[in-house]
Queue: 2 jobs
Job 1
Amino acid sequence: MTGPPHDAERVAAELAAIPLFSALGEEGVARAARAGLSRHYRPGQIIFHQGDPGESLYALLDGMVKVVFSTEQGDEIVLNVLGRGETFGELALLDGSPRSASIVAVRPAWAFALPRARLLELMREHPALADEFLHLLGGLVRRLTEQAADLAFLDLGGRLAKLLLHLAGKHGGADGVVSLPGLTQSDLAALIGASRPAVNRALQSLVARNLIAVEGRTITLLDVAALRKRGGL
Amino acid sequence: MTGPPHDAERVAAELAAIPLFSALGEEGVARAARAGLSRHYRPGQIIFHQGDPGESLYALLDGMVKVVFSTEQGDEIVLNVLGRGETFGELALLDGSPRSASIVAVRPAWAFALPRARLLELMREHPALADEFLHLLGGLVRRLTEQAADLAFLDLGGRLAKLLLHLAGKHGGADGVVSLPGLTQSDLAALIGASRPAVNRALQSLVARNLIAVEGRTITLLDVAALRKRGGL
DNA sequence: GTCCGGATGTGTTCCGCATCACATTCCGGA
DNA sequence: TCCGGAATGTGATGCGGAACACATCCGGAC
């Protein structure tokens, strides 16, 4: 699983496209790539578990993963879905505390892990990296705040509309086509804090009003303006 | 409003009791106190507005404030209630982005504002301060995550029970007495994303089962174990 | 092709809580 | 002291969505 030496170059090529690491410059990116390890994961595999000790920051070089928060009772909420170029496990760097969520691959994934100590070294030498990291955290806090507000104020249909717009922006094509292999309706339900049957019905309702089209796991946004309105934007 | 020079000593005395600043040592705390300004606010006054440019980190030296997030439609959710020794406005330091929430005094408050540039200077000289700040952010992210999960999984009664336990821990006496002048039932409702009448009825229900006692705005927790169970702990 | 397990589509029932509409009590200011 | 506005307590109604229960459907293993 651990990447052989020549992998470092391929890792560096991917890291260079990620804002957080590109701040390091060409030389720094190469050093970062050598300072960590990359692994491949199959769909359904768990990259790390909620509660595990957290000692690394991860960057998703390719594929897709979901961020899952579970309660002791076994209920699950999906906090986010990450694609190529996004990072996770940031909290490990803030304090040494255990992972607050699990990361599960939803399709074949290639992830790069950089140990806390290595990252801190890099930050000392490249203040721009620290800056980028703080930006990252700012975005994280804002997103979580918005998510809480959405749960409080929007109904299921509104949250679903907003979710589809977000997914289209992050993982979709230019024409509103969102292809989501590996993401089931159960996942969508867990993303907006709803039951799976309710999500199904909400999707049907959007289809009936010609706001979206669904075929298999590909969703096409037909009326972005109406969806934005439905989502309170 | 701006503190006259001799105030810096009183500010320093308060800052020394705050983990974030105590990391600076006696000398550093004194410098920090001189680098910012403190002001007093009356109940209902707004310390800063959501959407304002954010250029300072605040420390609440005394009193109590609420963190309010508003939608364009005018709906409000109270993200947190802060007491003496807590900080707010952290996001201003991460990026230069506008305030993501408003801060409103719920009782007479004394707050200290430290400009971003000053704080960054201090951080450069005192790495321990940066460490503490990252801890702070970690706690913030964790709390927001939990809040989202609670909205998704707990019913109104559960969220209320959990809220009361939290408030008792932060602002209450040792014996489970939580005195909350300035905090109305509407505020409690906005803290858990519920309507005001529903909160009233939920409180009555807890009283009827002898889990709490209410007199005016003082709530006494009578059966902490049962409350914890009700809140899913 | 044949199975089988998981994902998807629907119907039915029921309950929590938002919403509206008041009565009542509390409190600060003139 | 009285007054007025805000904060509380309660009732009645309606609806969204959870929970449960199935009937397909689809895709991969063999």
Job 2
Amino acid sequence: MYTIGHVARATDCKVQTIRYYEQIGILPQAPRSEGNRRLYAQADIDRLAFIRHARELGFPLDSIRDLLSLSDNPDQPCDAADAIACRQLDQANRRIERLNALKRELERMIKQCRGGKISDCRVIEVLSDHGQCLKDDHQMAEASP
Amino acid sequence: MYTIGHVARATDCKVQTIRYYEQIGILPQAPRSEGNRRLYAQADIDRLAFIRHARELGFPLDSIRDLLSLSDNPDQPCDAADAIACRQLDQANRRIERLNALKRELERMIKQCRGGKISDCRVIEVLSDHGQCLKDDHQMAEASP
DNA sequence: GCTTGCTTCTACAGCTACTGTAGATGTTAT
DNA sequence: ATAACATCTACAGTAGCTGTAGAAGCAAGC
Ligand SMILES: [Zn+2]
Ligand SMILES: [Zn+2]
Ligand SMILES: [Zn+2]
Ligand SMILES: [Zn+2]
């Protein structure tokens, strides 16, 4: 059995984050030692590594919760898991699209600015007026991870 | 003078968001009517449009605060504004890089999965083991907007 | 004058996924 | 025994809003 600190080092995850995952029910309630410390087995480390890896790939905790409950039933068909991954890929693609649009606008405004006074600054000017942006670029909507 | 609802419609911004911006000091305290309603002038609408547009381009409110105080001093040199925009562009580029790495991994795991049972699912398998990812891809770090 | 319905007011809770902190214990090493 | 460190609980804070409750203002129709 391992201490929470050991698990944290093994998975490169903060101690508080482990407790948080337990609190929201994505990790099971760890059994306690005599002195009330949480005790972990290798399976818990594996589960946490899974969570952290999925987080690195941008999966939200809700999706990870679903993926974990799927992987707890290894005989089920894997369509649901694949669908979650596809959803994640879609999101990544949408975010990349949006970020590329933002990047284009930012590059444009920076390139056009010849330096000088704020009153002549293209950056300030374009930010004041979306009409000066490329058409159909950056029409808002979420972005994130 | 305009009501908060009018300003909200004019800038496609929720009423609460306007009050929030006032609260954090990025919009000035609006003068009030006899009945305690906030009253806005055209300059406030312009300032809010600037804020919303900068938000759409991914600038955090702290940067926007700086940009606004720069644009209030039109005779200053514009280096500082350009630097903020460059910083924003850098961030966008880093996020795009990272998202492309995630996208590659997601595509790989989805493509490799031939369907079937969870126990054979490549998605679950790869999520369980970062060793099966491409080297030097998705080495964590922040992402967001 | 009165009711209906809309807007606005304040104040606060909630969202995501953690992270940091305080103050109290438990454990280990010297 | 004492110091140093790990862990415990509980709560606040991060970014940028968004939603809600309950009270009050305001305009139109009757
Ligand atoms: Zn400039
Ligand atoms: Zn624009
Ligand atoms: Zn599969
Ligand atoms: Zn990986």
